[in-house]
Amino acid sequence: MDKNNLTPVEKNKSPLILSIVVGIVLILFLAGGLAYAFSTNLITMPFNKAIELLVPEISATANPDSSSIVTITNPNSTGTIYYTIDGSDPLTNSLKYETPITINSTTTLKATVIDEKDNKSDISTQQFTIMEKTVEKAVETVVPENSSSIIIPEEYQGTWHSIKATGTYNFSGNTYTYSSGGNVHSGTIGKIEPYGNSSTILVFYPIEVNHGFTVDPGEKGDGMIKIDGTTYAVENSDVFD
Known about the structure:
This is Chitobiase/beta-hexosaminidase C-terminal domain-containing protein. Keywords: Membrane, Transmembrane, Transmembrane helix. Pfam families: Fn3_assoc. By secondary structure, the protein is mainly beta. The protein has three domains: about 45 residues; about 70 residues, Immunoglobulin-like; about 90 residues, Beta Barrel (Lipocalin), CATH 2.40.128. It contains one helix and 15 strands; from the N terminus they run αβββββββββββββββ. The longest helix is centred in the N-terminal third of the chain and has 32 residues.
């Protein structure tokens, strides 16, 4: 077709079509660029803005044994509390807080709130220091060997007869005498101390040997004691009547 023979309308169509094509290309280019920007978070839509969650609140109540009952409160209307007790930062694979927890050793507790869109609050941290109780041990009183001091308590003084009539113990001053079947053993008590953790049973240590024997008063004043597990009654006791 001869361009010189085109009508005015036909002549104006060519630039219009070209403008439309260029416009479409520009729109597609911009749309592709925006899509890429959104997908790479270069641009975020207002409704995709991260929610700022408040930090969880940690409170504790002390027990008489120095342990603590710890409560963690979520001040937000959404989200789940996660916590750690090893000093690491809590994540969604950390311990999930559901009920109050007991802390009975020195611990660094950390807690955070994470919602279903993975929004995360700052971390609350609290240090718990549990003081260990020290148990005072009874001071051991050692009486020098060959001491002439009377170290046997008064309530044990006297002669004690075995309920089974197999032997007799006599305590006088700081000495003892054991008689059984014609055999007699005597010695001097050089030390008395509690037996294990007992507050009543004593151990009498003769200075002549390297071991002792236990004396259990039972109920004091009842006229009976146990020596190395065997029951003895005081001389002239009603037990023998």
